[in-house]
Structure formats: C-alpha cells, structure tokens
Write a structure and sequence with these properties.
Number of helices: 12
Radius of gyration: 20 Å
CATH class of the largest domain: Alpha Beta
Helix content: 25-40%
Number of strands: 12
CATH superfamily of the largest domain: Isopropylmalate Dehydrogenase
Strand order of the largest sheet: 3-4-2-1-5-12-11-6-7-10-8-9
Shape: globular
Low-confidence stretches: none
Number of domains: 2
CATH topology of the largest domain: Isopropylmalate Dehydrogenase
Length: 338
C-alpha cells in the first residue's frame, strides 16, 4: 500500500494590515470546521494576526510556523502564520509600512503556490494606491500574480463567481467611453476561450454553456443602436461556435440575469466592468469570489476591498473570504483529479 500523501494547505496572503484582511482571515479559521474549509496558512505578520484576533474577540492560538507542511499539521488546533515581518495593528489607518508588509505577504504567498508548496493562492485585499507609493508597478494583484507566473496580462482573465452566477468582464478598469474602442472580435473570443477552458479544468464543467452579452441597448438591434454588437461581438460568437463552444449571443444584457435566464448558461461574458459586477453583487454580495483564470496556479480573492472605514469596528463579515478559501480548495481538488 502506498503511503498517504499529506494534504498541503492553501496560502492566504494577509492583505493590507490596516484593512479588514487580518480580522477576516482569523474569522475564517474560527469558522473553518463549521464551514468545512480546507487547511490554509496565512502569509503575513504573526503579531498583527494575533492582535486582530484579540481585537475581534476571537480566541485563537496563533502559531508562527516555518513551512506550509508544518501549518497543515497544526491547523486543526491553531491558526498557522508564516511570518514576513512585524508591525502595529492599526485598523483603518493605512501607512507605507503596512503596504510593505502586504507586498511581502503577496510575494511569498505567490511564490509558495507557484513552486507547489501550497495548493492554491487566496489574496487578501490591498490598497493599490498605497502599494504604488512603495514602488508596486502593477495595476493590481491579478497582474502581479500573472507576471510571477510568466503569463501575459491579457491572458489572465477575471471571473466573479458566486452561488447564483459567474461573470467574466472582457474590459475591466477602463472608462466606459473607452469600451467600444477596446472591444475586438479576437479579444472577446480569446478571453472567452480561456474562461471556458478554466470552467472545465477548475470547475469540472465538461461542456460550458456560454452566454455573451451585447454592449448596446437591445444588443444593438442590428445596428440601429450601435454597430459593435453586429460587427464585433457577433463574429466572436460565431468564431467560438465554430471552435466547438456552446456560445450564444450577443444577448440583450437587461434580460440575461433573471433566474430563468441564468439557468440556461454556466458563465455570462460581459463587455464592461459594471455590466458584470452589478448583477453578481446584487445576487451574491456576501459570497462573491474573484477567480483569476488562465494561470498555471489556482488564485482566488474575496470580491471586496480593504474596507478601511469598517476595519476594526467588528462589523466586517467573513462570507466572501470563506467563499474564496472554499472555492480555491475545490478548484485545487479538481485540478489534482483531472
């Protein structure tokens, strides 16, 4: 009989220590048994995580560990932290020292996962403006992780996923006025191809059903309300169908997200940020997960920011962090059994 291979933990980066990341990480561990979470290790500051637990009134034995393997051994009875530096816990008061800790946490968590020491990466929320002050030259964590994995930024695709909906925005953090000029048939087809491949590899959906939204009202009404749907999006859908994907569209976005419509597809491909994020946040605000598709590693993140305004007030909810940890574990399981 072959020996049982030990289960490696997931890596959870702490995020900005002045945000809600540290307290939500502690809350996730406190609820791990009730929510059936896989073992994880926090990459961050042992002192800050321990202070966040005390501040939130959570009884937790916070243990500094040297390796992910050691973290898996203690997870059932203690919250393991791989320490990247010390600092003061000052929720709601971000500073450059905290940004440096957040970057150190993200860097080590990414490297541990990239080298197979941890099974997946969950990134805590950061403040991009603070990181920029200390020399971080990426638009966000997605681009940082993609670069670390030698993946081109346009091949790292963001998907927001929750219990009721999965959405992929083709364009993300750009002005709405730029969207029509950025949309191309090749961009839509390639990003949808990456999304569909990931749904099979990471979510076990053998033949994903894809709904592609139009960009104009009523999907353009054959050019009467803009030409992009007819001239750019429709050819992309035709290209996807010719490649064997079960894709339909362009569809009027205002009729895509009610319950009966959602039952007909596995992912909605949207043309711009709010077209994707408004429905997912209406339906799955507390359980939404940001998943980066197209990477050689599994990476998820809770679908919210640092929330400096409520950090340390005792009102932050851990639902999205728990959902991100759970989804990362499920995707890692799926990859390991393919």
């Amino acid at each position: 009989m072959e020996p049982v291979k030990p289960v490696l933990p997931l890596a959870l980066s702490m995020g900005d220590p002045a945000g809600v990341g540290p307290e939500l990480a502690v809350m996730a561990w406190a609820q791990a048994r009730d929510t059936a979470l896989p073992p994880f290790v926090i990459i961050g500051s042992h002192a800050i995580i321990a202070a966040a637990a005390r501040h939130r009134g959570i009884t937790a034995r916070v243990v500094a560990v040297e390796s992910p393997a050691q973290a898996a051994d203690v997870f059932a009875t203690a919250l393991p932290v791989i320490d990247v530096g010390t600092g003061n816990y000052t929720p709601g008061q971000p500073d450059d020292a905290g940004a440096a800790l957040a970057l150190a946490s993200l860097t080590l968590a990414t490297e541990l996962t990239r080298h197979g020491a941890t099974r997946a990466l969950i990134t805590g929320p950061i403040a991009k403006s603070r990181l920029a002050r200390i020399g971080f030259n990426h638009p966000g964590q997605t681009e940082f992780v993609a670069a670390a994995c030698a993946v081109a930024p346009h091949d790292a695709v963001m998907m927001l996923a929750g219990p009721h909906l999965r959405v992929v925005p083709i364009t993300v953090h750009v002005p709405l006025s730029d969207v029509p000029h950025l949309l191309t048939t090749s961009l839509i087809a390639s990003r949808t191809d990456i999304a569909a491949t990931a749904l099979t590899r990471d979510f076990g959906i053998a033949a994903p059903r894809i709904a592609v939204a139009g960009v104009n009202p009523h999907a353009g009404e054959d050019g009467r309300m803009g030409h992009e749907d007819r001239d750019v999006i429709a050819p992309a859908v035709a290209r996807l169908r010719a490649a064997g994907f079960a894709a339909v569209g362009p569809l009027p976005a205002d009729t895509m997200f009610h319950a009966a419509a959602r039952a007909t597809y596995d992912v909605a491909i949207c043309m711009y940020h709010d077209q994707a994020l408004i429905p997912i946040k209406v339906l799955d605000f507390d359980d939404g997960v940001n998943v980066t598709l197209g990477l050689p590693i599994v990476r998820t993140s809770p679908d919210h920011g640092t929330a400096f305004g409520i950090a340390g007030t005792g009102t932050a909810r851990a639902g999205a962090t728990i959902a991100a940890i759970r989804m990362a574990g499920q995707c890692a399981d799926q990859r390991e059994h393919v």
